[in-house]
Design goal:
Layout lengths: L24 E11 L12 H6 L3 H7 L5 H12 L5 E7 L17 E2 L14 H6 L17 E2 L4 E7 L3 H9 L2 E8 L6 E9 L13 E7 L5 H10 L4 H22 L6 H17 L10 E8 L6 H6 L1 E11 L3 H24 L3 H7 L22 E8 L7 H4 L6 H7 L1 E13 L19 H15 L1 H34 L5 H12 L12 E6 L7 E6 L1 H12 L4 E9 L5 E2 L8 E5 L11 E9 L26 E2 L20 H4 L3 E8 L17 H4 L9 H42 L14 H15 L1 H23 L1 H7 L1 H29 L8 H14 L3 H11 L8 H13 L5 H14 L4 H14 L2 H12 L6 H15 L2 H21 L20 H8 L5 H11 L3 H15 L3 H14 L2 H14 L4 H13 L8 H22 L9 H12 L2 H14 L4 H14 L2 H14 L4 H13 L3 H11 L6 H13 L3 H14 L3 H14 L2 H13 L5 H15 L19
Parallel strand pairs: 16-19
Antiparallel strand pairs: 1-5, 1-9, 2-6, 3-4, 6-7, 8-9, 10-14, 10-20, 11-12, 11-15, 12-13, 15-17, 17-18, 18-20
Helix pairs in contact: 2-3, 10-11, 20-22, 20-24, 25-26, 26-27, 27-28, 28-29, 29-30, 30-31, 31-32, 31-34, 34-35, 34-36, 35-36, 36-37, 36-38, 37-38, 38-39, 39-40, 40-41, 40-42, 41-42, 42-43, 42-44, 43-44, 44-45, 44-46, 46-47, 47-48, 48-49, 49-50
Keywords: Coiled coil, Repeat, TPR repeat
Pfam families: TPR_11
InterPro entries: CFAP70, TPR-like_helical_dom_sf, TPR_rpt
């Protein structure tokens, strides 16, 4: 089928948009041929062309010596001149009457040409046969097969229909019946020969006249009932009527001859014989062959279905096999009915043709339903019938069904529900599987491989028999202990539910008594069971067609965990005068779960649906399917049907609802659901892209060798050993602490003798520890993770020295691997023990890690220049060969304002040049190329990332699917999305506490306010699309994140993480209103989640549009950020995993609002939580400086200077503090240090102003000059001109005044003063300058 031209989404309607409806729909059915209708009798219907091409008449006469020459010559022309029989057909369209058979519609029928004659084997004498052996004798010729009749003429019939759902459903439920009629060669007789049932439903998927459906149908005999009807309907011809009269006359003559036992005349006998032969030759109906087949061609005038229906529509069959595990009273009726039927059958068999048989044939009078007021006690049969009603999956509550038109209310009710009436209790035999008895294995031949293995096993069993027995015994004891604990816990639950007087002190004594009792006797396996069935053999099957939109909606509903409701109720069989007061008790509901269809390629699901408490949840409009029967009206009290079902002892009668019989007995509905195509087809990977990864990223000499990979795998193994050893040590310490506590308690005499216990030894503690590990599953998780790490080391070592490993052999390679792993374990445990004993602190941070922290600090402070410098310094020396560092640098370039996408692409390409299997670089570069429109290269990169098969493979597949969608490859898009969902489910199920951290928690992409880290540190993501959207947002690609979130909105749009990602994407795009709307929706879901309030606070704090906001609006945003952060502290609390820069943002908001004291408190709290952050100390020092507390300002700035020596702001404010405290020399030293860093022009101008105020014009001039180098400012240049004018550098002052006048950003006051200064300098009049720098400096900044 051709690829569709328009994308198919779940929200698409069935019909393509803007398509005019065709004028008419028609289905054309053509009979194009047949094969092997019936066998042609020799000499009856042999065509003339066969005789003409065959031997001459004389040769025929010679081969038939028994016949005379004249008879042979007369027989051959007689057969040649025979006319052939004819075949015609009639069509019966579903829901329409049968059409009459057209005359000779298929034409004459002729057999296949005879095969050419073969030479007969040579005739041997008896002596020759005796001389030859059996093998040398010629094989006998097979009997000749009779010629087979078939035809090839075409018969057609066109049916004009309406294309609607009612017609589709009719074609699904019924088949077209095509009847084949046979007409004798004389034309006197026309009789039905056979019937073909043709399924026209597949023809609805045809794509117009050009598309033809070729099918074949087996021709079967017509049932006798239909044959009788056809005989009655047919009309006899004239010849047929004459023949009937002749037959009647012959019968009368036969009667007369029977009365007169005289010899009949020879001539009459001859005439009778000739007449019978003629009738048998001409009028006998041929017998159909078993493999008689008709061929059909079906076509349509217009396409009945849209592209969506052809691709996604499916036929669903629901089979109700019965209800099992019946309540006691229902089962009692069923067993009673079975006995009655058995006895009746026995009487019939014994009676035969006698009296009992005659009595059995007579209809018996129905017995009364009850005797007396107690109801069914006197009834030998079951007075009840059972009604089952259920929603058909995919109908009620779906978009397509609610908007479907053209159906009557009765039709809609019939289609959307499954309704089975008149159910009864029956017995069913259980097929017991016959055990397969295998033949004993033959003894192996001496010297064979099997004999060698047998000898090896014998040696092992002889030498290590005790060890093997000990292991097996230990395993059996462990299983027995586990089973004993399970039984005791079950017994405990039962006892506590039944006997409320039992206290916990008496529990264990009861357990010991129950455990010592004899085990339960073995019960024989039953061979039959009782269940409720409905009168359809073998069980009712309900078929419905789900269009494409309906199938997509049902798949989405199953993914969301939706179930389909059904009800079962018990009614009295009519007519009856009884009343059932236990109706509510026997009315139950169940919910069908079809999650089995989420597996790939599944088309059949067998489910056992349990009953639940009867509720109206899930019912259509809150109305139950099974209405309660009305109470009988009348003055007399109605006869009541008793129901004495006892409740189990473990059930409290006060808490049992009246409709609990099905639930208490644990009854289940046995159902089978089939589809003609899987809801989740077997996944086929998209084709490989045309380009290769080497073409996108040219190869270069790699910095990482295979040895580095081995080293990395070994280090990962050592990390796992460290983690596992830490857990084991902690567990052992807890047990030893308990032991020490017990010893102290033993020394204390305050305890009673009953509470004292024997002190456990180390061996017992070790055994207890082993039991705890196995019971909790921690040991299995450790073993599985160790397997993964060991396999990684082994594969890398084998890849490094493959040739050497093949040469030395498997034993040597495994020996070397064992030594390597043992050394790693020994060294790791040794280092761990040394650290534990000496209580050493962690090693000093490496320069690379320290620079990364500083870069994050600068980025949080929006000092991108210094952050850029830190990232560059990390790539010095050998670090340039690190793909991780290049990847981090590229991510930072995407976060810079404005983005430097070109630099980011360079960094990621460099990382892939160093390591072309660097997963994060492949994904990041692919996303960036998708954003820039290079779809082919993006496809190559993301397909390479998916082929690495990491734990987070689903992220690559989701992004790759949208690249396929942008290319128009929609089949590949759907395939990628299915693969992504499967990988996501596997990753969630396989992840344990010892698994590697999630990709979004990787430190490589953890930066200030990383959304992926925030989501995964607080909760697990709700869908596969959230992971992909969070990754795109961490790469700062909000447009692409919006595209991925649209896929998630249909299924998981009401989840918190969906709203968080939407708000973050709007924030990056500058859409404040859109971001706040997402936050409001998240607050409607949950008002107590800390991440929602954190996002709201960060949104209001960091909102910076392209235009300047009014002061009141900006102030309201800062106040809103403070309020949101207060809610974040309320619901999260102070802990290590909180957002580390929240105190920084709160303090800055207070500082901008002028609330310096609150700002100071916030900064000091941040210093307490994270004392190694220079940003908190810097901001605290600046706040103290503006508050006038110079002493504390200096202390905070010095602490920050220790953590970050390259921070310009720290040196600048130390300079200002020293100037205000009168320490000019220290101020000069601090200023000189600040000049070695990346400087801020505004802060330099402030320092220059303070230097000039204290009379230090040299450093002031330097500060003014450096500020103007970084940023041209009219006010700074005017102040420098004033300084030059004051110290007598008039020419320099004149130049600065000239520049100030020409600058566009100059203020009117500065411009007028500059003009007046130029006039004075021009006239060489030395007027005194304005005293801008008095002796007492102005400390206002």
């Amino acid at each position: 089928m051709e690829t569709k031209e328009w994308p198919l989404r779940p929200e698409d309607i069935d019909d393509p948009p803007n398509r005019d409806p065709p004028p008419r729909y028609a289905i054309l059915v053509q009979v194009v041929g047949a094969e092997k209708l019936w066998a042609a009798e020799e000499g009856v219907v042999i065509p003339p062309k066969v005789v003409e091409g065959g031997p001459k008449n004389e040769e025929i006469a010679a081969k038939l010596p028994e016949l005379g020459k004249e008879e042979t010559l007369e027989a051959v022309p007689d057969t040649v001149e025979k006319s052939f029989s004819k075949v015609s057909v009639s069509f019966k369209f579903p829901g329409e009457p049968i059409s009459e058979a057209g005359p000779e519609i298929l034409g004459p029928v002729a057999p296949d040409p005879l095969p050419p004659p073969t030479d007969p084997p040579p005739v041997l004498t008896r002596d020759q046969e005796d001389d030859l052996s059996d093998s040398e004798l010629p094989p006998p010729l097979p009997p000749p097969e009779p010629p087979v009749v078939k035809f090839s003429n075409i018969a057609s019939k066109e049916f004009e229909v309406k294309s609607n759902y009612a017609m589709w459903h009719k074609l699904l439920q019924e088949q077209m019946e095509i009847t084949v009629y046979w007409t004798s060669p004389s034309g006197a007789m026309t009789k039905p020969l056979g019937m073909v049932k043709l399924d026209l439903f597949p023809a609805l998927a045809l794509n117009g006249e050009s598309d033809v459906l070729q099918v074949s149908g087996k021709l079967e005999k017509i049932p006798e009932s239909l044959v009788v009807e056809e005989k009655g309907k047919g009309k006899k011809g004239k010849k047929e009527k004459d023949k009937d009269k002749d037959k009647e006359k012959e019968k009368e003559k036969d009667k007369d001859r029977a009365e007169k036992p005289e010899k009949a005349d020879k001539k009459s006998k001859k005439k009778k014989k000739d007449a019978s032969e003629e009738a048998s030759l001409e009028e006998t109906l041929p017998v159909l062959l078993e493999d008689a087949v008709l061929k059909f061609a079906v076509s349509t005038s217009e396409p009945f279905w849209s592209e969506c229906n052809r691709l996604h529509g499916l036929v669903m069959e629901v089979s109700i096999k019965g209800v099992l595990n019946l309540p006691p009273k229902v089962a009692e009726f069923g067993s009673r009915v079975g006995k009655t039927e058995k006895s009746d059958k026995g009487e019939k068999v014994k009676g035969g043709k006698g009296e009992k048989g005659e009595k059995a044939d007579k209809p018996e009078k129905p017995e009364k339903a009850s005797k007396g007021s107690k109801g069914e006690k006197g009834d030998k049969g079951d007075p009840f019938s059972y009604l089952l009603v259920s929603n058909f999956p995919g109908f009620i509550g779906t978009y397509w069904w609610e908007n479907l038109k053209g159906l009557l209310p009765e039709q809609r009710a019939e289609l959307e529900r499954i309704k089975l009436e008149s159910g009864k209790v029956e017995k069913e035999e259980i097929k017991v599987p016959v055990p397969i008895i295998r033949d004993p294995e033959p003894e192996p031949e001496p010297g064979s491989q099997a004999a060698c293995w047998k000898e090896v096993k014998k040696i092992i069993n002889d030498n290590y028999e005790d060890e093997i027995k000990a292991l097996l015994l230990e395993e059996e004891e462990r299983k027995a202990q586990k089973e004993e604990e399970r039984k005791m816990w079950e017994l405990r639950e039962r006892l506590l539910c039944c006997d409320k007087s039992i206290t916990e002190e008496d529990e264990w004594e009861i357990f010991r008594e129950k455990a010592d009792e004899d085990p339960e006797p073995v019960v024989a396996q039953p061979t039959e069971r009782l269940l409720i069935k409905w009168p359809d053999a073998p069980f009712p099957i309900i078929k419905r067609f789900l269009p494409g939109r309906g199938a997509i909606d049902m798949l989405s509903a199953i993914k969301m965990g939706s179930k389909f409701r059904g009800e079962l109720a018990r009614y009295l069989k009519p007519p009856t005068d009884l009343y059932d007061p236990s109706f509510e008790k026997y009315r139950g509901c169940f919910f069908l779960d079809l999650s089995g269809f989420l597996e790939e390629g599944v088309t059949c699901v067998d489910v056992e649906v349990p009953f639940e408490q009867f509720t109206l949840s899930g019912a259509d409009h809150g109305i139950t399917f099974c209405q309660a029967p009305p109470k009988p009206s009348g003055k007399k009290a109605p006869k009541v049907v008793e129901d004495d079902d006892p409740l189990p002892e473990s059930v409290d009668p006060e808490n049992v609802l009246p409709n609990n019989s099905w639930q208490v007995s644990k009854a289940v509905v046995l159902m089978q659901v089939r589809t003609n195509r899987p809801l989740q087809p077997v996944w086929k990977p998209p084709p490989q892209p045309d380009m290769t990864l080497e073409e996108v990223i040219p190869a270069r000499k790699k910095a990482h060798t295979v040895y580095d990979a081995v080293k990395l795998a070994t280090l990962n193994f050592g990390e796992f050993i460290t983690i596992a050893a830490d857990d084991l040590i902690d567990m052992y310490q807890e047990l030893t602490n308990e032991k020490a506590h017990k010893e102290e308690s033993e020394d204390d005499h305050s305890l009673s003798p009953k509470s004292s216990k024997r002190i456990e030894t180390k061996g017992e503690i070790r055994k207890k520890m082993v039991r705890m590990l196995r019971k909790s599953g921690t040991w299995n998780d450790m073993m599985e993770e160790m397997k993964v790490r060991v396999l990684k080391v082994a594969s890398e070592k084998f890849r490094e020295k493959r040739r050497a490993a093949l040469d030395v052999g498997k034993f040597e390679f495994c020996n070397d691997l064992y030594i390597t792993l043992a050394e790693v374990i020994y060294n790791t445990l040794k280092e761990l023990m040394i650290k534990k004993r000496e209580n050493k602190e962690k090693e000093e941070m490496k320069d690379v890690d320290r620079l990364r922290i500083l870069a994050d600090e600068y980025e949080a402070s929006e000092d991108y220049v210094n952050a850029y410098r830190c990232h560059q310094e990390r790539l010095k020396g050998d670090n340039m060969k690190s793909a991780d560092l290049w990847f981090e640098f590229g991510c930072f370039c995407m976060r810079v304002r404005p983005k430097d996408q070109g630099k980011a692409e360079e960094c990621w390409r460099e990382a892939l040049t160093l390591d072309n299997r660097h997963l994060l670089s492949l994904q990041a570069l692919g996303c960036l190329l998708w954003h820039r429109g290079y779809l082919t290269q993006a496809e190559v990169l993301l397909r390479s990332a998916a082929d690495i098969h990491s734990m987070e493979e689903h992220i690559s597949w989701v992004i790759l699917s949208q690249i396929y969608a942008a290319q128009g490859k929609f089949d590949n898009e759907r395939s990628s999305l299915r693969r992504a969902e499967k990988c996501y489910d596997l990753a969630k199920s396989y992840r344990t506490q010892y698994s590697a951290p999630h990709q979004l928690l990787s430190p490589l992409i953890r930066f200030p306010f990383s959304l992926g880290h925030l989501i995964h540190s607080s909760k697990k993501t709700s869908s596969v699309f959230i992971d992909a959207a969070a990754f795109l947002l961490d790469m700062h690609l909000p447009v692409e994140a919006h595209i991925v979130l649209k896929l998630d909105s249909d299924i998981y749009s009401c989840t918190l993480d969906n709203k968080w990602c939407g708000a973050r994407a709007c924030e990056m795009s500058g859409d404040l209103k859109g971001a706040e709307s997402f936050i409001k929706e998240a607050l409607t879901i949950s008002k107590e989640h800390q991440v929602t309030w954190l996002l709201l606070g960060h949104l209001r704090y960091s909102y910076k549009p392209d235009f300047e906001l009014p002061v009141p609006l900006q102030s309201s945003l800062w106040k809103g950020a403070i309020d949101a952060y207060a809610k974040y502290f309320k619901y999260h609390g102070v802990s290590e995993d909180m957002y580390q820069y929240v105190y920084l943002e709160v303090g800055r908001a207070y500082f901008k609002l002028g609330e310096l004291d609150n700002a100071r408190k916030s900064y000091l709290q941040g210093c307490t939580v994270k004392p190694t952050s220079p940003s908190f100390w810097l901001e605290a020092g600046i706040t103290y400086y503006h508050m006038g507390d110079l002493k504390h300002a200096e202390l905070a700035l010095v602490e920050g200077n220790v953590l970050d020596v390259q921070n310009f702001q720290i040196w600048a404010y130390l300079t200002l503090v020293c100037l205000r405290m009168g320490r000019d020399e220290e101020a000069e030293n601090s200023f000189q240090q600040s000049l070695k860093t990346n400087m801020d022009p505004d802060l330099l101008a402030t320092i220059a102003d303070h230097f000039c105020c204290v009379g230090n014009f040299r450093d002031g001039e330097t500060a003014f000059t450096e500020s103007l180098k970084l940023k041209e400012s009219a006010s700074v240049r005017f102040y420098r001109a004033e300084m030059y004018h004051k110290i007598g550098k008039l020419l320099l002052a004149k130049d600065d005044y000239n520049i100030v006048v020409k600058l566009p950003d100059v203020s009117p006051l500065d411009k007028s003063l500059s003009i007046s200064r130029l006039t004075e300098l021009h006239d060489v009049v030395k007027s005194p300058p304005i005293n801008r720098y008095p002796q007492e400096p102005n400390y206002e900044v």
